[in-house]
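Morning. Coffee machine broken again, so started the prediction first thing and wrote up yesterday's gels while waiting. Chain of 290 residues, entered below exactly as on the submission form.
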Amino acid sequence: MTPPPIGSHRSPALPFVSDVLTIEMDGPLATVWLDRPEKRNALGPTFWEDLPRAMEAVTSDPTIRAVVVAARGPHFSVGLDLVAMGDLTGGPDRGAAPLSPAARARSAREQIVRLQSSVTSVADCPLPVIAAIQGYCIGGGVDLAAACDIRLASADAVFSVRETKVAIVADLGSLQRLPRIIGSGHVAELAFTGRDIGAARAEAIGLVNSVSSDPEHLLEDARALATEIAANSPLAVQGTKAVLAAGDGRSVADGLDYVATWNAGFLISDDLAEAMAAFVEKRPAVFSGH
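Came back before lunch.
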């Protein structure tokens, strides 16, 4: 199936309604918008419930080949909504019966695991996911960005693994995913200090792939990259993502064995035949994903 051309807007294949997230389908691209600009896209209870639904909605559409995670307003996200998530962070839970220390710890752990699963829905998306980051990207915002495959930023972006400054250990994925992205030394520096870094430093340490001049150009650059990816065989792109994930933490030999098995099943695809035909005929390939 050939995806609709860029500029062809439509609704997600699965019904999706949220107060804090919106989805924009544009040809083979889907943009998942953090849409709470009045709160600088602080991540409250509704966000954690709706993020997995949003990822399911975009992956359910077989014509979507790449996803951009972007944010309305001047900031990507200031992180966890500490007021709305007060029961998780130790704030008062008015009207509730007092819990024992053990019961409170168990409840907190269950909520943390639920929030972790929400972020992991982005990392587990079989489609390539690009984060477009402007303004503040703090705490949980970094967790979300780290779960994406590629990160782009505007020149005004500010990043912070801020949790130690509010007496919390970062627990939604930054400490697990960032070492694979920027190395353990940079992660330790950012997480121990909780300091802010700008877009230039983020690019220098590999936290972001590139920096755009402003948020408008950032979105253009993110969509251009997503479009370039979407022009390739979706079988090969998604297979590459799966092989990269399967090789994480394993030996080179294990990774080679996995990709040999993968390609043995997919080299017979229509997409490969189309690639060969396009090469011989000296024309751009048009991939069906079959």
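The chain has two domains: 9-230, 234-281. Going to sketch it on the whiteboard this afternoon.
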